[in-house]
Specification:
Keywords: Cell membrane, Lipoprotein, Membrane, Palmitate, Signal, Sugar transport, Transport. The protein is an alpha/beta fold and about 450 residues long. The chain is built from 18 helices and 14 strands. Strand 2, helix 3 and strand 3 form a beta-alpha-beta unit. The protein starts with a strand and ends in a 5-residue tail after the last helix.
């Protein structure tokens, strides 16, 4: 295996997606170049071929945490040992370099296999930068993917990526402070506090925290970043509205239902600790924190047995959580599809997924590994998060009262969706009119879709 790295400060793969590091950079960069132009529209013909099933594979991986990089290097080395006729030339790229490479490279110059940001999959597929992979990975690999990640990874009925891991949101609580206020954390999505009940919970908890602000929502991540849409689109889904319906944001993102839900959410600012350095929950300054699974190690270390976890509030149509993160795809013009498929099958195998998710603490995205996970398996500390992910919608066009995990909008126009929603959310949290902010976001999205023939 040949490994090269374009060095910057390593970013955790999981945190990068969900907490606004990597994904925000990728999304902003793609949005800045406006996504694919009409001339980039995909053709019906396939641009990839199987090849001999041997030879050298060029692979791009995202430069993450040291433990993740080490795990990936060991995994690929093991793959080469078990497939001596295939060599891997792997390059670790930091987020900014990765985004630039995706923008400036023609599809034909991209590697055989690459890591991709989940919500960008439809955009990359539209520009022919990744290819459908069901003909190159085994049926067993596809069947073992959880429904939640299949939702993220499928575009127009075709599977463009497979995932080793997933992510999810929860309400994290400090049991000592909850007990002091006489508050009990719900244990399942079906028992979630309603939005009105949550307001009363915050009032009770405001009396037991130092500054009267008992809630954290990770404002330090930036509401206009990728974390904004990941963390708070569940507010809309829980109210029963998608962000995009029938190819339009107008009537969905700016619906009366969406406006009412975000008005309620904004009303909680009076109870919210700005948490500039992201440590308010660990230090006992807040009693509840709206956050994803990737913070569990820090929370567990700080609170120990006082750490409890439950669902986000129910805005009327069932509690919801965001879902989705980094996945693996075939380059859109690879001529080594058979060999690349073997690598993807290997990456999705139980021992490999177990090793990788043990290194970063993420929820496994394969059914068999998730069931046996020491963190997410039945009766384990984060079994609640796995239960949410197993109750997958999995996409926002299939919302029901009972399903919980939802992928961000699967559309080639995603860059403008995330940037427009982030701008509106930031304005709303700052006190701007909710209806006007959402209407402006919906108009910007629909204008971009119209300018690009709805990305057909």
């Amino acid at each position: 295996m040949t490994v090269s790295t374009l060095r910057s400060t390593p970013r955790p793969r999981l945190r990068g997606i969900a907490a606004g590091g990597l994904a925000a950079l990728v999304s902003v960069a793609l949005a800045a170049c406006g996504g694919p132009s009409a001339s980039d529209s995909p053709s019906e013909a396939s641009n990839i071929s199987a090849g001999s099933g041997t030879g050298t594979l060029k692979v791009w991986a995202l430069d993450g945490q040291s433990a993740e990089n080490t795990a990936i290097q060991k995994i690929v080395s093991d793959f080469e040992s078990s497939h001596p006729d295939i060599k891997v030339k792997m390059q670790f790229l930091p987020a900014d370099s990765f985004a630039k490479a995706l923008q400036t490279s023609s599809p034909a110059d991209l590697p055989d296999v690459l890591e991709v940001d989940g919500p960008q999959i439809a955009n990359l597929a539209y520009g022919q930068k990744i290819a459908p992979l069901s003909d190159y990975v085994s049926a067993a690999t596809v069947q073992n993917q959880t429904d939640a990640v299949k939702g993220q990874n499928t575009v127009d009925g075709k599977l463009y990526a497979v995932s080793m891991m997933n992510s999810g949101l929860a309400m994290w609580g400090n049991k000592k402070l909850l007990d002091k206020a006489g508050v009990t954390m719900p244990k399942s999505a079906s028992e979630a506090w309603t939005a009105d009940e949550f307001t009363e919970v915050l009032k009770k908890l405001s009396a037991v925290v130092p500054n009267g602000k008992p809630l954290g929502i990770a404002e330090n991540n930036g509401l206009s970043s990728e974390y904004g849409i990941y963390g708070f689109s569940p507010v809309l889904w829980s109210a029963g509205t998608p962000m995009i319906a029938n190819g339009k944001a107008s009537g969905a993102l700016d619906s009366d239902t969406a406006v009412d839900a975000l008005k309620k959410f904004a009303s909680w600012k009076q109870f919210t600790n700005p948490d500039g350095d992201g440590t308010a929950f660990q230090s006992g300054q807040v009693a509840l924190n709206w956050m994803g699974n990737w913070m569990y190690p820090a929370y567990d270390k700080a609170l120990g047995n006082d750490l409890v976890v439950g669902p986000l509030p129910n805005f009327g149509k069932g509690a919801k959580t965001g879902s989705g993160t980094i996945a693996w795809s075939l380059g859109g013009h690879t001529k080594n599809g058979a060999a690349a498929g073997k690598l993807l099958d290997f990456l999705m195998s139980d021992p490999v997924v177990s090793t990788y998710t043990a290194a970063n603490g993420a929820p496994p995205a394969t059914k068999t590994t998730a069931a046996s996970s020491p963190l997410y398996g039945a009766g384990k500390p984060l079994a609640f998060l796995r239960d949410q992910l197993d109750a997958a919608c999995p996409t926002e066009d299939r919302l029901t009262q009972q399903c919980v995990a939802v992928s961000r909008p699967v559309t080639a126009g995603y860059p403008v969706v995330t940037s427009s929603f982030g701008k509106a959310l930031t304005a709303i949290w700052g006190g701007a009119d909710v209806a006007a902010s959402l209407q402006a976001a919906a108009r910007a999205i629909d204008r971009d879709f119209a300018d690009n023939n709805n990305y057909k």
